[in-house]
């Protein structure tokens, strides 16, 4: 294994193979134990219709039921957070049918995104670029989830996992802003494997990942933007050989996105001086 690969695999905690039942129960227990320690009354999570939030939503609902069995008056608040009309709304509904959350709310972020864009225009002239408006969408989804979490004394669940963390493929303080990450240490194929094992529909577990943040390119596939496949990322995280070009690209992304995997830099930090 490449030297940096070894360090990254250790940081992401991905195992070469998993037992789906064990992974589900330790993640549910983690959510339960943490909520109890935090004195929280449940969880909030955006359900997009993608693979990651389907698993995190399932785990959150199971953990909430367990909390109730243990006497905590907990609820899981699943949030639909479309921007206008979501082109794959049906997938989000399929995911919700699988998860069976206690509560489902729809909070359409379009007006809030437009509000930011208009204020930007008034201040600077010219609209926000589609790419930057995309990050505004992710941050407003985070804002909406924290609004509910505050009201309901709940924790915001994030969906970050090894195959996204390694590339920094999330919006800083957007979908990257959360309280607890039950999918962490899994890669993308393991998330699919668990969902398949749990009986989710094939349409959901085999769905191609999309951040779906662009007005001008709805449903753009992550792999197209990244220029690297999840199979290559997953192989790398399982400690397998991947071709040199892909490994180098992955490592370059890992190094250039370290600021996203840490709290804001202060005078006491020196990790960023190391290249
Ligand atoms: N070295 C550094 N040290 C400290 N801070 C640094 C920095 N370099 C940039 N920054 C800051 O970080 C900002 C850039 O980071 P950020 O705002 O995240 O923006 P950025 O990384 O450019 O964009 C987010 C990426 O994640 C993808 N994404 C987002 C959301 C969800 C998903 C998904 O898969 O669902 C994927 C999205 O498609 C895009 O490729 C800069 O504007 C600057 O403020
Ligand atoms: N339209 C949406 N409605 C609700 N939540 C959303 C929406 N878009 C994104 N999110 C939230 O942002 C998170 C990050 O998006 P991301 O695309 O990485 O995950 P996903 O859509 O669940 O899975 P996949 O990576 O397979 O597309 C989602 O898991 C979800 O919690
Ligand atoms: Mg998605």
UniProtKB/TrEMBL annotation:
<feature type="binding site">
    <location>
        <position position="210"/>
    </location>
    <ligand>
        <name>ATP</name>
    </ligand>
</feature>
<keyword id="KW-0436">Ligase</keyword>
<dbReference type="InterPro" id="IPR014729">
    <property type="entry name" value="Rossmann-like_a/b/a_fold"/>
</dbReference>
<comment type="similarity">
    <text>Belongs to the NAD synthetase family.</text>
</comment>
<feature type="binding site">
    <location>
        <begin position="46"/>
        <end position="53"/>
    </location>
    <ligand>
        <name>ATP</name>
    </ligand>
</feature>
<dbReference type="Pfam" id="PF02540">
    <property type="entry name" value="NAD_synthase"/>
</dbReference>
<comment type="pathway">
    <text>Cofactor biosynthesis; NAD(+) biosynthesis; NAD(+) from deamido-NAD(+) (ammonia route): step 1/1.</text>
</comment>
<protein>
    <recommendedName>
        <fullName>NH(3)-dependent NAD(+) synthetase</fullName>
        <ecNumber>6.3.1.5</ecNumber>
    </recommendedName>
</protein>
<dbReference type="GO" id="GO:0003952">
    <property type="term" value="F:NAD+ synthase (glutamine-hydrolyzing) activity"/>
</dbReference>
<keyword id="KW-0547">Nucleotide-binding</keyword>
<keyword id="KW-0520">NAD</keyword>
<feature type="domain" description="NAD/GMP synthase">
    <location>
        <begin position="24"/>
        <end position="264"/>
    </location>
</feature>
<feature type="binding site" description="in other chain">
    <location>
        <position position="172"/>
    </location>
    <ligand>
        <name>deamido-NAD(+)</name>
    </ligand>
</feature>
<comment type="subunit">
    <text>Homodimer.</text>
</comment>
<feature type="binding site">
    <location>
        <position position="52"/>
    </location>
    <ligand>
        <name>Mg(2+)</name>
    </ligand>
</feature>
<keyword id="KW-0460">Magnesium</keyword>
<dbReference type="InterPro" id="IPR003694">
    <property type="entry name" value="NAD_synthase"/>
</dbReference>
<feature type="binding site">
    <location>
        <position position="159"/>
    </location>
    <ligand>
        <name>ATP</name>
    </ligand>
</feature>
<feature type="binding site">
    <location>
        <position position="164"/>
    </location>
    <ligand>
        <name>Mg(2+)</name>
    </ligand>
</feature>
<keyword id="KW-0479">Metal-binding</keyword>
<dbReference type="GO" id="GO:0009435">
    <property type="term" value="P:NAD+ biosynthetic process"/>
</dbReference>
<dbReference type="InterPro" id="IPR022926">
    <property type="entry name" value="NH(3)-dep_NAD(+)_synth"/>
</dbReference>
<dbReference type="GO" id="GO:0008795">
    <property type="term" value="F:NAD+ synthase activity"/>
</dbReference>
<feature type="binding site">
    <location>
        <position position="188"/>
    </location>
    <ligand>
        <name>ATP</name>
    </ligand>
</feature>
<feature type="binding site" description="in other chain">
    <location>
        <begin position="259"/>
        <end position="260"/>
    </location>
    <ligand>
        <name>deamido-NAD(+)</name>
    </ligand>
</feature>
<comment type="function">
    <text>Catalyzes the ATP-dependent amidation of deamido-NAD to form NAD. Uses ammonia as a nitrogen source.</text>
</comment>
<dbReference type="GO" id="GO:0005524">
    <property type="term" value="F:ATP binding"/>
</dbReference>
<dbReference type="GO" id="GO:0046872">
    <property type="term" value="F:metal ion binding"/>
</dbReference>
<feature type="binding site" description="in other chain">
    <location>
        <position position="139"/>
    </location>
    <ligand>
        <name>deamido-NAD(+)</name>
    </ligand>
</feature>
<keyword id="KW-0067">ATP-binding</keyword>
<dbReference type="GO" id="GO:0005737">
    <property type="term" value="C:cytoplasm"/>
</dbReference>
<dbReference type="GO" id="GO:0004359">
    <property type="term" value="F:glutaminase activity"/>
</dbReference>
<dbReference type="InterPro" id="IPR022310">
    <property type="entry name" value="NAD/GMP_synthase"/>
</dbReference>
<feature type="binding site">
    <location>
        <position position="179"/>
    </location>
    <ligand>
        <name>deamido-NAD(+)</name>
    </ligand>
</feature>
